[in-house]
Every structure is written in structure tokens, then in C-alpha cells.
Amino acid sequence: WLLLLVLGVWSLMLQGSYEAFEAAVWTPLLWLQSVGVLELLFAAVGWTPSSVSAVAMQLLGRMINVWLVSYQVPEVRQQWAFVVMLLSWFTVEVPRNLYNAVASKPHWLLWLRYNLFILLYPLGAATEAITLYRALPYFQSREMLTVRLPNTWNVVFDMYLFGWTFLLLLGPSFLFLYLHMFSQRAKHLSRSTKDH
After folding, report:
1. 3-state per-residue secondary structure call for 3-31
2. Known catalytic residue at 19
3. Rounded CA gap, 119 and 155, in Å?
4. Catalytic: 128?
5. How does pLDDT run across 65-95, given as a tens digit for each residue?
6. Catalytically annotated residue among 22, 93, 121, 160
7. Among the options 39, 128, 138, 160, which is catalytic?
8. How far is C-alpha 97 from the geometric centre of its chain's CA atoms?
9. Model's pTM, two decimal places?
């Protein structure tokens, strides 16, 4: 995540375009976000202290945004919301992963882990919603990832309707994750205060 943050910021500083940002981070993001499925496994077996439900919700949202939205509709990758969404993800993931990786947790890292999300979670969720919303007309006009009847499996799927449904679920999902992080923040920062 740190590498993606550096590549993304560097590309914006040097070339100042959404295209340069996308070129710098897109392929590594696909790999890194896909490998993120392991985090769900690690939480399930207790290797990380993360909540399985919180990890699953965040992972599902990001996988949908990366693979079903941004990958399928490359036009959204050339917009400010996509850039801000990824910069929010990268910035919040660096201290979170570092915090989970180190045995001794310095106070500054604890502080970053449990304070950056206050701004970055709403920013990330809002730009995820904007990115998805901007992809909806493409899903509808191109009938992307849509299966109509009749077909061999007798199955119907409409990506445009799925996109709207997911967009409507973003609010409650965000609220669940945000409140979960505030409870984690209270628990960890109060424990830290007692230690000092």
C-alpha cells in the first residue's frame, strides 16, 4: 500500500493527470486488492485481530469497486473521484497494515491507525459511491455483465440494477464499519492512555 501511495502521489506531482495516476497504480492495485482476500482468511483463523464481518464488508466493497466497476468501466478511472478514492484507501491502509504487522506498537502508529480513518473512511466511501454512480450509465447502455433470458441456465442478472442496489447498501455498510472503527478506537486508545 505504501508503494501505491508513493507511486500515485509521485505521478500526480510529476505529470499532474488522472491518466498518469492510473498508469502508475492500476496494475499493482489489481494484484494487491485481489490478494486482500487473504486478510479475510487471516481474520477467520485468528492470525490478525480484525473482525471477520468488518473485513468481509470492506473487502467486498473494494473488490466490487475495483473489479466490477473500475475494471469494467475504464472511463471512471479518468475522474477525480477514482483518484481520491484510491488515495484514501492507500493512506488508511499504510498505518493499518503496519500496525497489524509490528509486535511493538509505538504511540504515533496507534494514533495514526485509530485517527486517520475519521476523515479517510467518509472520503473513501463518498468517492466509492461517486465512482459507482458514474459507472451506472455505462452498465445500462452497454448491458455490461448482464444476463438476459432466455439462456441455458435460466438465470437473470442485471449489473445496472445490481449497481443501484449496491449503491443503496453503501450507506448502511459504511455506517456499520465507521461505528465499528470508533468502538475499536475507544478500546485501543483508552488502553494506550492507561499504559502511559
Report:
1. HHHHHHHHHHHHHCCHHHHHHHHHHHHHH
2. no
3. 41
4. yes
5. 999 999 999 999 999 999 999 999 999 999 9
6. 121
7. 128
8. 14
9. 0.89
